[in-house]
Every structure is written in structure tokens, then in C-alpha cells.
Write a structure and sequence with these properties.
The longest helix has 25 residues. The protein folds into two domains: 74 residues, Orthogonal Bundle (Arc Repressor Mutant, subunit A), CATH 1.10.10.10; 140 residues, GntR ligand-binding domain-like (Four Helix Bundle (Hemerythrin (Met), subunit A), Up-down Bundle), CATH 1.20.120.530. Strands 1-2 form a two-stranded antiparallel ribbon. By secondary structure, the protein is mostly helical. Helix content is 77%, strand content 3%.
């Protein structure tokens, strides 16, 4: 019994490490363009280099880090043009996901999204950005899953990974965060009404607002980026 449990744990360790690294990248604990220091990360995550390297390979496949010959891995750094191009593609994917989800969502899937929405609202009330973001991202993924199109989901996940860090940072302004919360309420209402037109519309508005906030962040004075190592 114990040997079986140990085997299962060891096979999932690199996935657990990958999840921790994703969170560090999204929440800015590892800056865009920064080198992933294996020794430091092993100490922080309390793992050996083997699962860490496997985790880094997973993140490279997702497009969150770049593997450079003889230089190791660096966190993805997007230019303003990269970000805007990615948002353009994401708009099509989000709109399609929402429209199909409104047509195909089951009662069980809707109940799960409603439950996550309540949890997200509780995190918003506490101003717990990290917890809020986890529920927020889970809701968007659940909407995509409710569309029941595996090709759409695979493409969505790949493109969305490039924007996660910026989407996290876009909620750090109180007024814009409040607006995003209101738009999430409209998403739930559109799903409850099984209204594909309304669902597509609110998702496109929501993403356009995210794009505008991210563009402002990208164009902000470069004091932080010039001092980053």
C-alpha cells in the first residue's frame, strides 16, 4: 500500500511543481524575462532538480517559459505588439467559447460556475487578489469546457497561458477590478438565460477592457522594468 502511494506521489510531483511555478509567474514572483534559477527554486519549492526540470519543460510546452541553449529557462516576456496580437486571437476564442457554452451547458456545469462565482465574490470582498484570480481563471476555463469542443479548448489553453500574468495584474486597480466583477455577474446571468448572443457580447467587452488595462500597464513609465534583474 505505502509503496503504491509513494509511486503515485512521485509521478505527480513535477505537475505539482509546475502548478507552483505557474502561480509564481502569474503573480509576478518571477518577473518577465527573468532567468529561472534552478538552485534557488529547488530551495523555495523544496524539491530536487529532476522534478523541477520536468516542470520547466511542461511550462515551456505551454509557452510560459523559453528554453535557451546554454542559458537555461527564462520567463516569457511579451512586447506590446505580442500582447495585442494575443488579445486579438483570444477575443475570437472567448466569444466562441461563451456562445457555445450558453447553448450546451448542463445544469451541473452551471451550478459549478455559480458556486465558483460566489467563492470569487467572497475573495473580492476580502480583497484577496490571489484567491480571486484562481476562481476567476477557473470560471473562464469552466465556460470554455462547457462549450464541449476539444479543439477550441486546446487552442484556448495555449493562447490564454500567454496572458495569465497580465490578466492577474489588470485587477490591481480598484475601479477596474469592480468593473470586472460586474461583468462576471453578467456572464453568469447570460449562462442562466442560455443566451449565446448576450454571453458572446459580455465576454468580448470583458476582454476588451482587460486589453485596455494591460496596454496602460505596458505603456507605464519603465522604472520597474529598468530596475528588475
Amino acid at each position: 500500500m505505502s509503496a503504491q502511494i509513494i509511486a503515485i506521489a512521485s509521478t505527480t510531483l513535477h505537475e505539482q511543481v509546475a502548478q507552483r511555478l505557474r502561480q509564481m509567474l502569474v503573480e509576478g514572483h518571477i518577473s518577465p524575462g527573468a532567468k529561472l534559477n534552478e538552485r534557488e527554486l529547488c530551495e523555495v519549492l523544496k524539491v530536487s532538480r529532476t522534478p523541477l526540470r520536468e516542470a520547466i519543460k511542461m511550462l515551456a510546452a505551454e509557452g510560459l517559459v523559453e528554453l535557451l541553449p546554454n542559458r537555461g529557462a527564462i520567463a516569457l516576456a511579451l512586447s506590446e505588439a505580442d500582447v495585442l496580437h494575443t488579445f486579438e486571437v483570444m477575443a475570437g476564442l472567448e466569444g466562441q467559447s461563451g456562445e457555445l457554452a450558453a447553448q450546451r451547458i448542463t445544469d451541473e456545469e452551471l451550478a459549478e460556475i455559480q458556486a465558483m462565482h460566489y467563492e470569487m465574490m467572497a475573495a473580492y470582498t476580502r480583497r484577496d487578489l490571489s484567491a480571486y484570480y484562481r476562481f476567476n481563471a477557473a470560471i473562464h476555463c469552466a465556460i470554455n469546457a462547457a462549450a464541449k469542443n476539444p479543439v477550441l479548448t486546446a487552442t484556448y489553453n495555449q493562447v490564454n497561458a500567454r496572458l495569465q500574468a497580465w490578466r492577474f495584474r489588470s485587477n490591481q486597480d480598484g475601479e477596474k477590478w469592480a468593473r470586472a466583477v460586474q461583468e462576471h455577474g453578467q456572464m453568469v446571468a447570460a449562462l442562466e438565460a442560455r443566451d449565446p448572443v448576450a454571453m458572446r457580447a459580455v465576454l468580448l467587452v470583458h476582454l476588451a477592457h482587460k486589453r485596455d488595462v494591460v496596454t496602460e500597464l505596458l505603456r507605464a513609465p519603465q522604472v520597474t522594468s529598468s530596475s528588475a534583474h
